[in-house]
Design brief:
Helix content is about 45%, strand content about 0%. By secondary structure, the chain is mostly helical. Helix 10 packs parallel to helix 13 and helix 12 (about 310-315) packs across helix 13 (about 315-330). The N and C termini lie close together (about 10 Å).
Length: about 400
């Protein structure tokens, strides 16, 4: 999701000065990159994020990743359970200089929850996330930072892996859903979600935040989001706003946003008329989760026709986003506008394990993960990049 790319770059700007800071992947792997990592671009700001999305995407298509890929992600975790965006020297203990964040931790928890054998790591990650929950019930990108819709949504996705009702996870009286509802706009303003209030407390519609929040409010996540029975996508104000009502309102906003052209537009200054491929993929997941495959059809078809060059430039995170969109919307990741997304994703990292033919293509890894995902039930994209709240 653009969720992390924006947050990662934003966080980096704070330290140094929602996708990956470097959108284009290098033509050939750098010899300095660690074994097992997907992608050849600098992992400083998105290593854990893109690895997590890649593993989840492979899980969604029943492909077992190489052990080195799983081990690389697991090795990024700090002793307290948190994950940084990238840990260059896993053999060295994490210290105060290493910036950990909620987005990387939540995405990694979702990924490790489906690979099997990492239950303790997932529990430690979720325990850490609970320990840095804000008083309003939500989370910011950095521990203690002001709550935002994107971070709160991806953390909700991680909480779901523990099979505990999200509404019961509270800091005082406030739950994660309380934080999200505060960021939901009335129908007069489109029914969208804001990323955060501005300095004056005003809320402004944000497409990426809306896509992430719809998935979370719908009670699903990167692992489980897909088209189910069609639900309402019309906007309607309510005296007592519920997550289900807010999800429907947010989906209404997204549906209107893609109604004309089939895609969301970039929020980057001076580029308002350019398509935002990553956010459009996130919107497909959100629309499918709320309104079913028909609600997601137009932007999904647009992505099939237009996203191949973008994915090639974006690398593993881009391919993973498209796989999640295809899976959620009912398209074939193996033939997505003529592109085999799974083949392209796996080509960016260690070769996956070939599934056993005896099990009709269903690997042990898939079965273990399926059991964990099923346990999440009605649970929560991280669902779902250029360093700002854009997207």
């Amino acid at each position: 999701m653009n969720v992390h790319r924006s947050a990662a770059i934003l966080a980096a700007a704070v330290v140094i000065g929602t996708a990956t800071p470097a959108v284009a992947a290098s033509p050939s792997p750098s010899p300095s990159l660690p074994s097992g990592l997907y992608g050849s671009s600098d992992p400083t700001y998105d290593g854990v994020w893109r690895q997590s999305l890649a593993l989840i995407a492979l899980y969604r298509v029943h492909a077992e990743p190489a052990a080195t890929a799983v081990d690389w992600l697991a090795g990024q975790q700090c002793a307290n359970g948190a994950f940084p965006a990238f840990r260059a020297n896993p053999a060295k203990a994490c210290d105060a200089k290493l910036m950990v964040d909620t987005n990387s931790t939540a995405a990694a928890a979702q990924a490790l929850s489906v690979v099997g054998g990492h239950g303790t790591a997932v529990t430690k990650a979720v325990t850490w996330l609970k320990s840095v929950q804000n008083k309003d019930g939500g989370w910011g990108f950095a521990p203690g930072g002001a709550s935002d819709a994107n971070s709160t949504s991806v953390v909700i996705g991680a909480l779901i892996t523990q099979h505990t009702p999200v509404s019961t996870i509270r800091n005082g009286a406030k739950s994660p859903y309380d934080a999200l509802m505060k960021l939901s706009l009335p129908c007069a303003d489109g029914g969208a979600f804001a990323y955060q209030p501005d300095k004056k407390g005003k809320l402004s519609a944000n497409a990426d935040a809306t896509a992430a929040a719809v998935v979370a409010a719908r009670g699903t996540n990167f692992v489980t989001a897909r088209a189910d029975a069609s639900r309402e996508t019309a906007c309607a104000d309510a005296a007592a706003l519920t997550p289900a009502r807010a999800a429907a309102n947010g989906a209404s906003f997204l549906a209107e946003a893609v109604a004309k052209d089939g895609y969301l537009k970039s929020a980057l200054p001076g580029a308002e008329d350019q398509p935002d491929y990553g956010n459009t993929a996130d919107a497909v997941v959100a629309l499918a989760a709320q309104g079913g495959s028909e609600a997601a059809r137009k932007p999904l078809v647009w992505l099939e026709r237009n996203s191949s060059k973008w994915a090639a430039q974006s690398g593993p995170a881009g391919y993973a986003q498209l796989i999640l969109a295809a899976e959620a919307g009912g398209a074939d990741p193996g033939d997505f506008g003529g592109t085999d997304l799974v083949k392209e994703l796996t080509a960016t990292g260690p070769a996956p394990v070939t599934a056993s033919q005896e099990d009709s293509g269903t690997s042990v890894w898939w079965m273990v993960g399926a059991g964990l995902a099923a346990g999440a039930g009605v649970g929560f994209l991280l669902s779902s990049r250029n360093k700002r709240k854009r997207p």
